[in-house]
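Q: Here's a chain of 118 amino acids. Please give me its 3D structure as tokens.
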Amino acid sequence: QVQLVESGGGLVQAGGSLRLSCVASTRTAAMAWFRQAPGKEREFVAAMRMSLPTTNYGDSVKGRFTISRDNAKTTVWLQMNNLKPDDTAIYYCAAGAYGWTKEAYNYWGQGTQVTVSS
């Protein structure tokens, strides 16, 4: 069993930045971020292999968000720049196999709220 603890969410104005963190209790093959806005499906944001420099991003965040990891390979960060009101959602950290669908990940964090005001 892998426990994931997220932090770093909050309220920010449009154009601002936030950095989310996710700490895993043990190493996994990959970690990712998804988000879910009210009334919408959970959406892929970014993923990273923990042993290779491989990343992938959802189309709506490319060029604005960056996923990275620490040397111990148990922590990932999501640097979010030029935030837009449409980025408002609960952001979930996930761990499991590498991919961009929810089904690739077995473990999920509790979520952290990101709210972007216009």
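Q: Can you summarize the key feature?
A: The radius of gyration is 13 Å.
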